[in-house]
Fold this sequence. Notes:
By secondary structure, the protein is of the alpha/beta class. The protein has one domain (about 30-285): Nitrilase/N-carbamoyl-D-aminoacid amidohydrolase, CATH 3.60.110.10. The chain is built from seven helices and 15 strands. It has helices at about 40-60, 80, 95-105, 190-195, 215-230, 280-285, 290, and strands at about 30-35, 60-65, 110, 115-120, 120-130, 135-140, 145-150, 155, 170, 175-180, 200-205, 230-235, 250-255, 260-265, 270-275. The strands form three sheets. Strands 1, 2, 3, 4, 5, 6 and 15 form a seven-stranded mixed β-sheet that branches. A six-stranded mixed β-sheet has the order 9-10-11-12-13-14, with helices on one face. Helix 1 packs parallel to helix 3. The radius of gyration is 18 Å and the shape is globular. Mean pLDDT is about 90; it is low at about 1-20. The structure holds 2-oxoglutaric acid. The site of 2-oxoglutaric acid has 9 residues, from loops.
Amino acid sequence: MPAYINCKQHQTSACASLNTMEVPIISKFKVGLCQLTVSSDKNQNLIRAHNLIKDAAQQGARLVVLPEMWNCPYSADGFAKYAEDFENGDSSPSFSVLSEVASCYGITIVGGSIPEWCNGRLYNTCCVFGPDGKLKAKHRKIHLFDIDVPGDISFKESDSFAAGDEPTIVDTDIGRIGIGICHDMRFPELAMLYRAKGAHIICYPGAFNMSTGDLLWELVQRTRAADNQLFVATCSPSRDSAGCYTIWGHSTLVSPFGEIIATSEHEETVVVAEIDYSEIQLTRESLPLEKQRRSDIYQFIEIAPRRP
Ligand SMILES: O=C(O)CCC(=O)C(=O)O
């Protein structure tokens, strides 16, 4: 175990069953969003991530979310240098740190994202760890962020990364979680798919920028939550104005009604807030969008059958 990991096991046993899942889950719990400052020093980033996760766990968070690209600056010229191969644990310190911290504190971690090397390709990948420290799921960013607004912002993520080609939904002791990374949030179909598959919450590690952040970061996540009547959690790195890509920040938790439960500014911080899954049912009962939906007039996605 790396020297910077030093913690005691935290356990709770309060469980309640929620009718959208087959397994008993905790229906009321705290989530922690670790809006950490990312530098070019990978080891420092690992230490910071550990410290913020510890802070969130000590404030009672059972689910902790990290930002997109938390082990390296969001910069095309650095992704390959910071990339890790998860198949080979020894060469993946970021992966190991999250696994160890998850088991140390007995929490679920949606591990933001880091550059992943696999078979000669680079992916923007989020790993989800359970309270036993085991990897539960891996999401590779599906929609790469290519943008060119003359005189404003130009970025081509597809020059660096290959796109993932699978949605990711994972059952945990704190509910069914759908995963998307940053630009994935722009695509309502992915969130609809997660809703159809019974997700309670969608976690979007992100790193929006100063051009689209102010206008759209909050709007899009509230829309995903309100349209699908589920919780949405986003987590961004803090703002670093020194780099060429200035990050918007504002990690946020949104309720199934589209309300902001908790948010932050752009500095390094840990947002801890409570989720109560009974709000999903309440929202869906008071405004039964699924019943009101006119699938006879429009149908954008196949509603996939529940997993056995
Ligand atoms: O969709 C946007 O406006 C920003 C997306 C982004 O920053 C990303 O995917 O990294």
